[in-house]
Design a protein that fits this description.
The complex is a heterodimer of chains A (about 450) and B (about 600). Chain A has 13 helices and 22 strands. With about 450 residues, chain A is an alpha/beta fold. The longest helix of chain A has 25 residues. Classes of the chains: A alpha/beta (about 450), B alpha+beta (about 600). Strand 5 of chain A pairs antiparallel with strand 1 of chain B, so a sheet runs across the interface.
């Protein structure tokens, strides 16, 4: 069937091309389309029956006519050619070069959809990654093989934060740094340049494979792009034994492309018009992070999810939160106070933190200090609310200390420079300086031994 | 049944021309031999849901009916195992195919080569009449669990022969029975049961004993009975998985079946890696010996998710029928409902609420109805307790799955985002949760632990509710506006929250709390509150009470004293009484 070209499509609308009377076409088959100007487009079969074949056209169906559009079924799924030369290169969503260099030639090609990892084959992630950022290392630690998204909003500095994580991430006691797979969906030209320059200035460009779909590129290509990028990441991690950091930005644009196609196909819409399979579809992407037994490499994933209207209950961040192993939430309020990184601590969470910190990984007191900081800051925020109603002077003495604690916590612990790389020990020491603003009796989450060793309470000096 | 040809492939839904096929029948689909199930008929067309990815499947390929519905393999070797949603053995798959799950791989769920030590039931004699559910013999499946080999339901006849004690594989005949309808049938250690059909029992009964989990907020405040139905709804990050794992670890059931339905792969790995190392507090054996996992993680094909819930509950019923108390945890029923919705959508069925089909509520109810305490066909008593996690979108409990589940279950453990954000774990809300099982549980607590349980529990909940109201006042006008008695209520409630409700899963001492210790802590806190209230009526200031050393000790008592140190808690109560008495004296005598 490879040789045959079909024309006279039955219909072409909203990114879908319909052909009648093409027998035996495989579901998921890759399609090559030539339009009347001789330009090539790519497509994928998303329904195949005896009567009708539905093709999703990655570049869209604009400017196609029915009679002079030639369709070839390639009888193979979308595949990516794999070789170590992926690093240092820039590709589009289906792995074609975007950097005016020749395509990757390799006999090793893999289906971009991958195969689900057997849960039994997974190794539980438990190696602490030091990002040098206190809000993450101290309170929401990242471990190797984790998927930890950044929930952000328009105008918030998620790009700066991601770039800082990419620059500073390392494993304690190991020299090897991460290689990076950078997957951009619907990124603006300016943002793409920011990342490129940041990688270049830090001399890591040769360790980055970039898969780019810009804001003005066809949106349907965004559906296949993260799968292509993750196929590269899996190769780097599990064939070449590298530790890979995957940045996916922005998953919201991915989900919007999915909604666009789902609507065109006539799928039943659920919340906010997204199809019911949004969860499973995103899970196919996110769950490709992780570690595998007997393989040295790992895939750690930092997706960026911008919350439409800063709404964390919007389906995209909501379903993401159900799949990923925690989330770092950025706060507009802190950002408006010029605080960087503006991490909103109460809703932020790292589910895998418990196994990556403590005695053998960071420091013995770390789990309890983190829990205590959280509890104290939560209490302090309540007090701050109260103070805004009845005034600071009306508060009992202890509550005033909590107010000071909240201010100091934000100014000294959270805030740091975009190039400031703090060791986790520094982070924990700052934490104890802050906890020393509060009397030992109220610090019930830390142990007596911790208090004796680290707590420097001088009774409200 | 003749094979047919594929007409259409639409994602996981395939249509084939298969005249005469029955709904529910299993099939091998396409050249790869993917597993599928008929879910609808339209003339000669069969609608088939395929449990594996259908990529590169094409019209014209062959579909072969297997002649039976989706069935579970039942027999020794299930415990300690991990299976996918259609019971493929994931460990064996890894050994034969590596770290990925290849398509079309058909491996039997249970190991056919392994020999088991079978001991026949001593009272059975050849010539005796036997019926479905009767015990033929026993196999020590793990050190912790005895597996009773039952006559499969539906079989009735004269026992012709029963094998002697010895080592048998799953498929070797251990008994022969002459049945009136089907002639002589051989029975082995292995049997099958269609997963969508509940297994029969003799009689169904109300629960009488609480299912203990070692978690204070659950056992003491919102109990669930053995044979009951419970739900854990919660937004992401509220700690659903952690709480379910705590229940799986510390529950006093004989068997735990954990169904990971559309959730994270790493969570199952966590169980697989940690459970073998943990000790069951009741049997003293490794926890993995009584645990069985069904894993259909979120990246595995959606349709098998729908089947995984039924597989899990069938396995649970099988152990129930042997006279065991079984708990099945389903994480998460929302993902199961979404799989229903996805298939319904592709079938073009009319969506009613948020895209869910109209039969969502009845399917949910039918699933939860498979819980219960029963008299088995063999004359034993066993139970299946079902606990379903619910993942409401946006944390909105009014969405269809949470809402319908709430109508069906008896115990509702509502997780709260705001408690989780303040790192109050378990984040079970004491205002939104409920339990219909308090009366029944109280009979047990009164008999086994203390007659004061029910009153103490009610006092504590009352105090928490009062404090909730008072905190609204504080938020408006500040704490100074409260009377001393009100302030004491607020302080006591915060003590209850810290000393009782919060319980760290990561703390070695506090992760599991015995019922005796639960009551001791509850009693301590409530007697302090009562006695303290009397002192305040006698003009003792709240601040003096807050400075009592016993109060600080009570705050830390949960981690300071293990389950076996009840005497230390009794001493703490005495010390506390002494300190309160002294305080009362001091103030009466005006010496303060």
């Amino acid at each position: 069937m490879k040789e045959k070209e079909y024309r006279y499509a039955a219909a072409a609308r909203t990114g879908l091309l319909f052909l009648k009377g093409v027998p035996g076409v495989a579901f998921g088959d890759r399609v090559s389309i030539r339009d009347r100007h001789g330009r090539k487009r790519n497509g994928q079969v998303i329904l195949s029956s005896e009567e009708l074949v539905m093709v999703q056209v990655l570049e869209g169906t604009d400017d196609l006519n029915l009679d002079d559009t030639w369709v070839r079924f390639l009888d193979q799924p979308f595949e990516l050619a794999l070789s170590p030369d992926l690093l240092g290169r820039v590709f589009n969503g289906i792995g074609e070069p975007r950097d005016e260099r020749p395509p990757i030639i390799s006999r090793l090609r893999r289906n971009v959809n991958g195969e689900p990892v057997n849960p039994v084959a997974r190794a539980y992630p438990r190696e602490f990654i030091q990002t040098g950022i206190s809000a993450i290392d101290g309170l929401n630690s990242l471990v190797r093989g984790q998927k930890l998204p950044i929930f952000s909003g328009s105008g918030l500095p998620h790009n700066r934060l991601v770039a800082q994580i990419v620059r500073q991430s390392r494993l304690l006691g190991e020299e090897s740094r991460f290689v990076v797979v950078f997957a951009a969906m619907g990124l603006s030209y300016a943002d793409a340049r920011f990342f490129r320059e940041d990688f270049e200035n830090n001399g890591v460009l040769g360790n980055v494979a970039m898969f780019i779909n810009l804001a003005d590129d066809p949106p349907i290509e965004r559906l296949i792009l993260p799968r292509t990028a993750l196929t590269a990441a899996e190769y780097l991690a599990f064939d070449l034994d590298l530790h890979v950091l995957v940045v996916l930005t922005d998953m919201t644009y991915y989900a919007e492309a999915l909604r666009e196609v789902a609507t065109a196909k006539g799928d039943v819409p659920t919340r906010k018009g997204y199809p019911g399979y949004l969860y499973s579809d995103m899970a196919e992407i996110y769950e490709r992070a992780g570690r595998v037994h007997k393989r040295h490499g790992s895939i750690t994933m930092v997706p960026v999810v911008s919350m439409p209207s800063d709404d964390i209950t919007h389906p995209i961040p909501d379903l993401t939160g159900y799949i990923t192993e925690g989330q770092i939430v950025l706060s507009r309020e802190l950002n408006n106070q010029n605080l960087y990184p503006p991490v909103n601590i109460p809703p932020s969470l790292s589910r895998l933190m418990k196994d990556g910190i403590g005695k053998d990984d960071t420091r013995e007191d770390h789990p309890r200090v983190a829990s205590q900081l959280y509890a104290a800051y939560a209490r302090a925020l309540e007090v701050r609310n109260l103070a805004s109603i009845i005034g600071r002077d009306e508060l009992p003495d202890l509550d005033r200390r909590y107010l000071d604690f909240a201010d100091q916590f934000e100014q000294r612990f959270l805030a740091q420079g975009p190039d400031e790389d703090r060791s986790v020990i520094q982070t924990l020491n700052i934490a104890w300086e802050l906890l020393s603003l509060l009397p030992g009796e109220v610090l019930s989450r830390v142990s007596e031994t911790d208090l004796a060793r680290y707590h420097d309470w001088e009774g409200g000096k | 049944m003749k094979s047919g040809r594929i007409i259409e492939v639409n994602g996981p839904l395939v249509q084939a021309r298969l005249p005469g096929i029955a709904n529910g029948e299993q099939l091998r689909v396409g050249e790869l031999g993917l597993t599928g199930e008929v879910i609808g008929l339209d003339g000669e067309r069969a609608l088939i849901q395929v449990y594996e990815s259908t990529e590169m499947l094409r019209p014209g390929e062959e579909v072969v009916p297997l002649g039976h519905p989706l069935s579970a393999e039942l027999g020794p070797g299930l415990l300690g195992g991990i299976f996918d949603g259609v019971q493929r053995p994931l460990r064996a798959i890894m050994e034969s195919a590596g770290e990925h799950i290849p398509r079309g791989l058909a491996l039997p769920a249970l190991d056919r080569k392994k020999h088991w030590d079978f001991i026949p039931e001593a009272s059975l004699r050849a010539g005796q009449e036997i019926r479905g559910g009767m015990v033929l013999g026993r196999v020590q499946e793990t050190e912790a669990v005895e597996h009773r080999i039952l006559v499969p339901p539906g079989i009735k006849g004269e026992l012709m022969e029963l094998a002697g004690a010895g080592r048998y594989t799953l498929e070797q005949t251990i008994a022969r029975v002459r049945t009136p309808l089907k002639g002589i049938q051989g029975l082995s250690l292995l049997q099958r049961w269609p997963v969508r059909q509940p297994r029969p029992y003799a009689r169904r009964d109300d629960g009488i004993a609480p299912l203990l989990t070692g978690q204070r907020i659950l056992d003491t405040f919102f109990p669930l009975l053995k044979g009951g139905k419970g739900a854990i709804p919660g937004p992401f990050g509220a700690g659903k998985t952690m709480l379910q794992q705590q229940i799986a670890r510390w529950t006093n059931a004989d068997i735990v079946i954990y169904v990971g339905c559309g959730e994270r792969g790493n969570e199952l790995v966590d169980i697989l890696e940690s459970f073998p190392e943990l000790t069951d507090p009741y049997s003293g054996r490794s926890l993995m010996e009584r645990t069985l996992l069904v894993a259909n993680t979120s990246n595995m094909p959606v349709v098998a998710r729908e089947a995984s819930i039924y597989l899990g509950v069938t396995l649970a019923e099988y152990y129930r029928d042997q006279g065991h108390d079984v708990v099945m945890l389903a994480d998460s029923t929302s993902r199961w409902a979404e799989a229903l919705r996805e298939v319904a959508g592709r079938l073009g069925q009319m969506p009613v609420e948020e895209g869910y089909p109209a039969y969502l509520a009845s399917r949910l109810a039918a699933f939860y109805e498979r819980a219960g305490r029963v008299d088995t066909l063999g004359g034993d008593s066993g139970s299946v307790t079902l606990i379903g996690a619910v993942s409401p979108p946006g944390g909105d409990f009014s969405e269809p799955v949470t809402n319908h589940t709430k109508d069906i279950i008896q115990t509702f453990w509502a997780l709260s985002k705001s408690l989780a954000d303040a790192r109050h774990y378990p984040s079970v809300s004491w205002t939104e949760s409920f339990s219909d099982a308090v009366e029944a549980a109280a009979r047990w607590w009164s008999r086994e632990i203390s007659p004061a349980w029910q009153a103490r529990r009610a006092q504590a909940l009352d105090l928490l509710a009062r404090a909730e109201e008072l905190s609204r006042i504080i938020n408006l006008v500040g704490v100074e506006a409260l009377s001393p008695a009100q302030r004491w209520s607020v302080e006591a409630a915060s003590l209850v929250r810290e000393a009782l409700l919060q319980q760290s899963a990561l703390d070695e001492v506090d992760s599991y709390c015995s019922p005796q210790k639960q009551f001791a802590l509850l009693d301590l806190a409530m007697s302090l509150y009562q006695r303290g209230g009397e002192l305040i009526d006698n003009q003792v200031p709240v601040s003096a009470l807050l400075q009592l050393p016993a109060l600080a000790r009570l705050r830390r008592a949960k981690n300071s004293y293990g389950n076996e140190q009840l005497d230390a808690l009794a001493r703490l109560k005495e010390d506390m009484q002494d300190q309160l008495d002294k305080l009362a004296r001091d103030y009466r005598e005006g010496r303060s």
